[in-house]
Write a structure and sequence with these properties.
The structure is a single chain. The chain is built from 13 helices and 14 strands. The protein is of the alpha/beta class. It folds into 2 domains: about 120 residues, NAD(P)-binding Rossmann-like Domain (Rossmann fold); about 150 residues, 2-Layer Sandwich (Dihydrodipicolinate Reductase, domain 2). The strands form 2 sheets. An 8-stranded mixed β-sheet has the order 8-9-10-7-11-12-13-14. Strands 3-2-1-4-5-6 form a 6-stranded parallel β-sheet, sandwiched between helices. A hairpin with a 5-residue loop joins β9 and β10. The chain is globular and about 60 Å long. The C terminus is likely disordered.
Length: about 350
Amino acid sequence: MSEAELKTAVLGLSEGGRLLLEAARKSGRFRIEAVADLDAKVAEKIGAQYACAAYDDYRQLVIRNQLDCLLVAAATYSCGEHVRMAMKKKFHVLKLAPPARNFEEAAEFVQLAEDEGVKFAVANPGRFAESFLAVRPFLQQGAIEQLFLITAFCSAGGENNPAWYSDPKLAGGGVLLRNCYAIVDQIVWNFSVPQQVYSLSSSRAADKQQRLYLTEDTIVVTMKFTDTLFGELVAFRRAGTEPAEQYLKIYGKSKIFTVSSTQLTVADSLGQTAEHRQYKYDDLCCMTSLLDNFALSILSPDKSELFSTGRENLKTMAVIEAAYLSARTGLPEEPATIIQMAGQGVRQKSI
């Protein structure tokens, strides 16, 4: 395919969908042909802004258009069958993280895309944050000697979440899947898949029986990478609408690295700061970089490699799946086993 604008549509016009639209326009590599949202008024309003067709039915958008790619911000429970239909029509698909409700569903999307010869990408703007990109050379060059602990923290506001977030069948998971996907992805991307995962979780429901039927609001996840390297993630949704807070701390023999979306700090073993870098995090800039990469991987596949493939993201989904399984069984679980078991039902290349 030559350098050109990609005929594109967007499913779901929530905040994430509008961010995709604005980033696609800023990129200049996409031509918006259609948008869809289950709220007809929202679809009509956004369609008028972008001078494109508007639908309140995801299925009709996919049926009535012949596209190069589909950008998906809608909840998977509401559009999963339409994403599959799009792949069968040879549309490349980019899905806002998380890629699916669970590992099995994500693996089905990945396999179908490979069978149909189209790309399936996961939109995780955090991978393009300057601060997290800056820490990778330290890790790759061995600047952190004798790594022994990784800790992550995620605090998410919970007042504006839609009602379906509380339903395990619709959401797939709670704060871990919905709010912590990016930080779990950073852990897996930088340190590989842990050997074992153990977790405890709960919701804020007052009644113990009711908690069994709601997604989690609080979770603690412990990870074993090797006999000498461990990790821990603490995450919760809190009341209020204050900005989310996420950071990663990496402990070595003589250095401690703390990284968030806006800063990178290097301290000695006593916690004294040796270096501090401040960054500006901009969702639109990061999403535009992500969409540029997605477009170029389609337009010039021999020159541009896709940065966040669906298959690569199965590693992150396997860790999350292992955490949820452990919370149910009360035992450590192995992400590698989840990946291997999926291979029995879904044809699988090396991940």
